[in-house]
UniProtKB/TrEMBL annotation, chain A:
WD repeat residue numbers: 35-76, 77-118, 313-343
Keyword rRNA-binding appears in the UniProt entry: no
Keyword terms, alphabetized: Cytoplasm, Initiation factor, Protein biosynthesis, Repeat, Signal, WD repeat
Subcellular location(s) per record: Cytoplasm
Function noted in UniProt: Component of the eukaryotic translation initiation factor 3 (eIF-3) complex, which is involved in protein synthesis of a specialized repertoire of mRNAs and, together with other initiation factors, stimulates binding of mRNA and methionyl-tRNAi to the 40S ribosome. The eIF-3 complex specifically targets and initiates translation of a subset of mRNAs involved in cell proliferation.
Signal peptide: 1-17
Stored InterPro entries: eIF3i, WD40/YVTN_repeat-like_dom_sf, WD40_repeat_dom_sf, WD40_rpt
Source organism, top-level taxon: Eukaryota
Taxonomic source organism: Mycena rosella
Protein name: Eukaryotic translation initiation factor 3 subunit I
Family: Belongs to the WD repeat STRAP family.
GO molecular function terms noted in the UniProt entry: RNA binding; translation initiation factor activity
Gene this protein is translated from: TIF34
Organism classification: Eukaryota, Fungi, Dikarya, Basidiomycota, Agaricomycotina
Keyword 4Fe-4S among record annotations: no
Automatic annotation (TrEMBL), chain B:
The organism of origin for this protein: Mycena rosella
SUPFAM superfamilies reported in the protein's UniProt record: DPP6 N-terminal domain-like, RNA-binding domain, RBD
Molecular function per GO: RNA binding; translation initiation factor activity; translation initiation factor binding
Family: Belongs to the eIF-3 subunit B family.
Record-linked PANTHER family: EUKARYOTIC TRANSLATION INITIATION FACTOR 3 EIF3 -RELATED, EUKARYOTIC TRANSLATION INITIATION FACTOR 3 SUBUNIT B
Main location: cytoplasm
Subcellular location: Cytoplasm
Entry keywords, A to Z: Cytoplasm, Initiation factor, Protein biosynthesis, RNA-binding
Gene Ontology biological-process annotations: formation of cytoplasmic translation initiation complex
Domain RRM: 26-114
Subunit structure: Component of the eukaryotic translation initiation factor 3 (eIF-3) complex.
Function comment: RNA-binding component of the eukaryotic translation initiation factor 3 (eIF-3) complex, which is involved in protein synthesis of a specialized repertoire of mRNAs and, together with other initiation factors, stimulates binding of mRNA and methionyl-tRNAi to the 40S ribosome. The eIF-3 complex specifically targets and initiates translation of a subset of mRNAs involved in cell proliferation. Component of the eukaryotic translation initiation factor 3 (eIF-3) complex, which is involved in protein synthesis and, together with other initiation factors, stimulates binding of mRNA and methionyl-tRNAi to the 40S ribosome.
Protein name: Eukaryotic translation initiation factor 3 subunit B
One term under GO cellular component: eukaryotic translation initiation factor 3 complex
Length: 363, 727
């Protein structure tokens, strides 16, 4: 138990847009809580719909759930036998799905921590996501050992205690070309948006397995994250090519581009405020051992519309693997390669500050 | 059979037709021979043969054919001469043309083959078409920039970009040329040209549209060096020159005579090759070969001479533009290791210009002060019974001006101050600095003895100060990963009263290993270069108390010694590899080149106080170079005037700045408004498409609208009392 999850509450100063590269936590609002948590690097973190719970999964096989306001751990979901790559929870905080390197997709009861159902595949599960009304789950399995990358959609039976699920997927197909790395349901039924290893972003009809639309040049390297806006009409993608982009989920048109100087692992959209949060960093193997610098492991705040960086938050001492924002936009959490989840609560100035004057920007 | 006859072979025949030599290349026609009759024939032929032989082309009377006019019985006045081969004929043509045979006769010699051609020549005169005069772009057009901005070039990946650098709003890209496949770029010393090194040779570009200006076909060129006045270019390749069969010939190309050499000297204006050299001399050992000095040829500051050293033997000085050895012999110096030309100061340049003017007008040169002769300094190491020696030599007089013996020398470095006022020689083992005051009578030498090893030495440009980096770190000399050498930086200044150099101040315990003086003096940057853990920049001002640098001489004595040294700011540029001031001394550029490492390549520009102006982190970033500026055209008087009225000038500049700032912010506000409008329009559109006019329906249950209530139980121990209950 050498590592614990370090949860810090700190303030963000957004009053001066031009010199808030370094954001100093004000000591009075600073509280530091340390709990045993993950022992290895984080892979994905998610808030529930209300934002009171934070789910985190990591390479140490455990899924944790935390109170987001104080960092107290509520419980764990045990049973996975390999790295847990991905989690998602439904809008009622009733069911949790997880995908793991032990080739399983599991359905959990959020409240009891019991594993309700397990689907097994030939290869690891890299990404899972619920649809809008929690009736379906999409999952991507890895391309390995002669098996192609596959996308499966399962119907979730919400009747009863949830342990009565059908073993067979409702839809199954292998996307042609580069393997998919991330995916999510769009607003249109049975249409998913995917990000691929080649940097492609595409729309698939899960019924037919047909690629409806694609943008081959969305990125020039692996798409590492894809998060939807609240109304699912647009999404933000991040990539190892150091760029994050906002796409229209209907026609895949690139709306905005954010060019940074470090490979990105995650990108999230802040509700209520016009910011995009980007996280990443040089991979551990590429960081020189002699350098004492911990640079590049900051969460970067970019203005969503102006495409300008407005601030950074330091903290992690390894690359940031995943970022999640509270659905109400009151705090955000980042999970790093260093095994820590950091939760940052925004203070009043974040909401009140108008660094670019009073402008009305649609969410 | 009939079918084959029909085929038209004419094209094939034409193609394979054998071209016969005319066979008359060795025939000359000599006109102007006396008209004689038969009786004098033998005598004349013998005389002609003698004349030819005297010029080195021997012929026999049998080779001469003299046509006769049969009706008059006299000769026609011309003869045909046949030579052994065409070369002899050519020689005779040159030697005998316009040769006076006797008082009345002069030979006119032509090639036999030419006679025919001349016959067919069209006699009508055609006026040659005058070429339309196309004005060339001014090569120094960038100096006429209204905002007086400087330029710099960046080389990243495969792309070269040339930028203007000024106020933030005026910093813009000047040119993005599509130059391909080259090693690197280099400015000429006055900024007129930019050179790219290609496989085939060097190209120079210039003018406001960056058109090709000149090229030098030196294949596989690796290093180049411009002469100080941009008249000549030296190129070097590690591969010896090989001239393939069928290579183009001409003054601009390497000829077979140059084979095996690897240094070439070119004239920039004409593009002509002047001469080639070999870096490898016969008695060079393998070890010496590895350590090639660059520049291998050193230019005198006025471009009149170029010299190279043959270690241990001599210095060879060549005159320009002929490239002949000056005085037809090298300066033989037993054991010579290295030498440096004395730079030309502003004073010398003015004197030289006056000299030239006086020479041109033919005025009495006595009244004009003679310009200082070129000087070079060389050193020879210790040999048996003779100490090491530094010698100051005038050139072209070759007079030894000053000689200084040194003891216990293993290595000696020569540093000239950029105005040629001072010379410092640094010898190792015991780190001594020997400073020659070159402007003074008899060239007095002062010795500074230092305990620590001096790793870097630098004169203040146009100043009387110098800075040294010294170190007593035990790790010095055995660099390893992660080892940062601790150093001290010291400043020295000439004390006018005592006429010696005195320590101004020492800054102890630094890691700085590079001194970069501003080209205007006064400001200096200390940098830690090439270290993986430290990358500090310190910006120092040495005349912080003095208002005007131009007036500082008189004030020094009043001020406390060394009190004007002030740290203006510190900065950090991670893993920097290069530090360079802009030509005006206002800005400093630092860069991290991917040629050295791949960590955070890119560049940053700082002002002289250490404030960051711009920072660009770019993958595969290779080069950053400021465009040099030529010497100012203003006279001393004009410069003084500018300095005097500085306040008035600055007022107008301030007004410009203010006007621009409001302008820029207005532009930015407009741009942001446009971006917001576009965004909002797109949001409205996409919402309408998905949800109709009614706005988004509540998607997930519990939209996060209701206030989150957090219940916290806090256990607080108010008081803790331990009571022992006694039974």
């Amino acid at each position: 138990m050498s590592f614990g999850s370090l949860i810090i509450l700190l303030t963000l100063d957004f009053r001066d847009p031009f010199c808030c590269k370094v954001v100093h936590p004000s000591p009075s609002l600073y509280s530091l809580l340390k709990f045993p948590g993950h022992e290895r690097s984080l892979t994905q973190i998610k808030f529930n719909a209300e934002g009171d719970l934070l789910f985190s999964c990591s390479k140490d096989h455990v899924i944790n759930v935390w109170y987001s306001h104080n960092g107290e751990r509520l419980g764990t979901y045990d049973g996975n036998n390999g790295t847990v790559w991905t989690v998602d929870i439904d809008s009622e905080s009733r069911f949790l799905v997880s995908g793991s390197a032990d080739n399983t997709l599991r359905l959990w009861s959020v409240a009891s921590g019991k594993c309700l159902y397990t689907w097994e595949f030939p290869t690891a599960v890299k990404r899972v996501a619920f649809n809008e009304d929690d009736t379906k789950v999409v999952c991507i399995t890895e391309q390995r050992m002669g098996y192609q990358c596959a996308i499966r959609v399962f119907d979730i039976n919400r009747e009863g205690d949830g342990s009565d699920q059908s073993e067979e997927p409702e839809f199954f197909f292998n996307p042609i070309g580069s393997k998919a790395t991330v995916c999510a349901f769009t607003l249109i039924p049975n249409i998913i948006i995917t990000g691929h290893e080649s940097g492609k972003v595409a729309l698939f009809n899960v019924k037919t397995g047909e690629e409806i639309d694609n943008n081959e040049r969305a990125h020039s390297d692996v798409v590492t994250d894809l998060q939807l806006s609240k109304d699912r009409t647009y999404c933000v993608t991040s990539s190892k090519d150091k760029i994050a982009r906002i796409h229209d989920t209907k026609n895949l048109m690139v709306i905005k581009t954010y060019t940074t100087e470090t490979p990105l692992n995650s990108a999230a959209l802040a509700p209520t405020r016009p910011y995009v949060l980007l996280g990443g960093g040089q991979e551990a193997m590429n960081v020189t051992t002699t350098s004492m610098r911990q640079g590049k492991f900051e969460t970067r705040f970019w203005h969503k519309v102006y495409e300008e960086e407005v601030g950074r938050v330091k903290g992690h001492f390894g690359p940031i693997n995943t970022i999640a924002i509270h659905p109400a936009g009151t705090c955000y959490a980042s999970g790093g390669e260093d095994g820590f989840v950091r939760v940052h609560h925004f203070d009043d100035s974040y909401f009140k500050a108008q660094p670019y004057g009073t402008v009305d920007i649609e969410d | 059979m009939a079918a084959t006859d029909d085929i038209d072979y004419s094209d094939i025949e034409e193609k394979y037709q054998v071209h016969y030599d005319d066979g008359f290349d060795n025939m000359l026609v000599v006109d102007g021979v006396p008209v004689i009759d038969k009786s004098k024939l033998e005598k004349l032929l013998a005389k002609i043969c003698k004349e030819f032989s005297r010029k080195g082309v021997s012929i026999k009377p049998d080779d001469i054919f003299m046509p006769w006019n049969d009706t008059t019985g006299k000769s026609q006045g011309f003869i045909f001469v046949e030579f052994k081969n065409a070369d002899d004929a050519n020689l005779a043509l040159v030697a005998m043309h316009n040769h006076p045979f006797d008082a009345k006769h002069q030979f006119k010699v032509n090639r036999f083959t030419d006679i025919e051609r001349y016959e067919r020549l069209d006699e009508t005169y055609i006026e040659p078409e005058t070429e339309e005069y196309a004005p060339r772009e001014h090569l120094r057009a960038w100096l006429a920039d209204a905002q007086g901005r400087d330029q710099y070039v960046t080389y990243r990946g495969e792309d070269v970009e040339i930028y203007w650098h000024g106020k933030p709003s005026q910093s813009e890209i000047a040119m993005k040329p599509d130059w391909k496949d080259f090693l690197y770029v280099a400015w000429s010393p006055l900024g007129t040209y930019i050179a790219t090194l290609h496989r085939q040779g060097v190209r120079l570009w210039g003018g406001s549209s960056w058109k090709p200006q000149q090229r030098f076909a030196h294949p596989l060129v690796k290093l180049i060096d411009f002469s100080p006045c941009e008249q000549y270019l030296v190129t070097w390749s590690n591969e010896s020159i090989v001239v393939p069969e069928g290579a183009p010939q001409g003054p601009q190309y390497l000829s077979p005579d140059d084979e095996g050499n690897n240094i070439a000297v070119w004239d920039i204006k004409s593009g002509d090759l002047l001469r080639t050299f070999s870096t490898v001399s016969e008695n060079d050992s393998a070890a010496a070969k590895k350590q090639m000095q660059w520049p291998a040829l050193k230019w005198s500051p006025d471009d009149k001479y170029v010299a190279r050293v043959t270690p241990g033997q001599m210095i060879s000085v060549h005159e320009l533009p002929s490239m002949y050895l000056h005085g037809k012999k090298s300066i033989k110096i037993e054991g010579v290791v290295d030498f440096e030309w004395c730079p030309q100061g502003d004073r010398d340049r003015e004197d030289a210009e006056k000299d030239a003017l006086a020479g041109a007008t033919g005025a009495a040169t006595k009244t004009v002060k003679k310009a200082r002769e070129n000087m070079l300094v060389y050193w020879t190491p210790e040999v048996v019974n003779q100490p090491a020696r530094v010698t100051l030599l005038g050139f072209p007089s070759r007079a030894i001006l000053r000689q200084k013996n040194l003891f216990n020398v293993t290595e000696c470095k020569l540093y000239w101050q950029n105005q040629g006022d001072f010379l410092c020689t640094k010898k190792s083992i015991f780190c001594n600095l020997e400073i020659f005051r070159v402007r003074e009578k008899d060239y007095p030498v002062e010795v500074l003895e230092l305990k620590d090893t001096v790793t870097d030495f630098s004169w203040e440009p146009k100043g009387e100060r110098f800075a040294i980096v010294s170190s007593n770190d035990p790790n010095l000399g055995n660099p390893g990963p992660g080892i940062t050498i601790k150093t001290d930086v010291s400043f020295y200044q000439l004390e006018h009263g005592k006429n010696d150099f005195k320590l101004l101040r020492t800054l102890p315990s630094r890691t700085s290993n590079a001194i970069r003086w501003s080209p205007r003096g006064r400001h200096v940057v200390l940098a830690t270069v090439g270290s993986s853990s430290k990358s500090e920049l310190e910006f120092w001002d040495l005349d912080f108390n003095v208002e005007d640098a131009g007036r500082r001489e008189g004030q020094v004595s009043k001020e406390e010694w060394g009190s004007g040294i002030q740290l203006l700011g510190t900065a950090d540029h991670y893993a920097l590899t290069d530090v360079e001031w802009d030509p005006s001394g206002r800005y400093l550029a630092t860069s991290a080149s991917s040629w050295t490492h791949t960590l955070e390549n890119g560049y940053a520009i700082w002002d002289f106080r250490g404030q960051e102006i711009t920072k660009q982190i770019q993958d595969r970033f290779k080069q950053f170079i400021w465009r040099p500026r030529p010497r100012t055209l203003l006279t001393k008087e004009q410069q003084r005037l500018v300095r005097k009225n500085l306040k008035e000038y600055s007022r107008t500049f301030d007004e410009d700045d203010a006007a621009e700032e409001s302008n820029v912010s207005a532009e930015l506000v407009a741009l942001r408004k446009r971006l917001v409008d576009e965004w909002n329009a797109w949001r409205m559109r996409s919402k309408a498409e998905f949800f109709g006019e009614g706005g988004p329906k509540s998607g997930r249950k519990g939209d996060g609208q209701e206030q989150e209530e957090v219940e916290v139980w806090i256990d607080e121990v108010i008081d803790y009392v331990e009571e022992e209950v006694l039974e």
